[in-house]
Design a protein that fits this description.
alpha+beta, Rossmann fold, two-stranded parallel ribbon, flat
Length: 63
């Protein structure tokens, strides 16, 4: 099943290596890392995150 893994590069709870390992363990996963953002990513990059999720769902999800 296609999976979208998202996170900020500066997240202390889910650091970038953990995000990459998660995506690698879930093929065919798409990884989207937001540089310079931490655990507050949904609050600080809401529009970009919504856009990326919408794009993923409309182009990757099976019918």
């Amino acid at each position: 099943m296609p999976t979208l893994v998202v996170g900020g590069s500066d997240d202390p709870f889910f650091p970038e290596p953990v995000l990459r390992a998660t995506a690698d363990a879930l093929p065919p996963a798409t990884l989207r890392i937001y540089p310079g953002h931490g655990h507050g990513l949904p609050k600080h990059r809401a529009r970009q995150l919504q856009h990326d999720i919408h794009t993923f769902l409309t182009h990757s999800a099976p019918l």
